[in-house]
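Issue 218. Parser rejects a valid record. Input:
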Amino acid sequence: QVQLVESGGGLVQAGDSLRLSCVASGRTFSSYSMGWFRQAPGKEREFVAAISYNGISIYYADSVKGRFTISRDNAKNTVYLQMNSLKPEETAIYYCAAHVARYSVVAITTDKSFNTWGQGTQVTVSS
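Output the parser choked on:
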């Protein structure tokens, strides 16, 4: 099992960039697909991006395509989310998560496929 710790959130202006990091503990990080989700106040948690355990397959929500980039460094047990051209409506708590099954990308864009979550990092985008 892995444990996850996110960092990199903060307060930025519309159009700015942030890079979120999620460090995993445990020796099996490289066998798990990883995802980023976000939850704004009063809204349901939504999928943002995901990357397969080997980094070959990448998935994005339509709303972030072309602006966000997910990547992973298995040697550092870290997954990243580079966010460019941020919008005020993207203010939320951002969570990283590990897929429920090793070496799997099944239903990777749905939060029910992830069973290990970090504590979240706040991203606030001012207009």
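Fixed in the parser; the record now loads. The chain has no helices and eleven strands.
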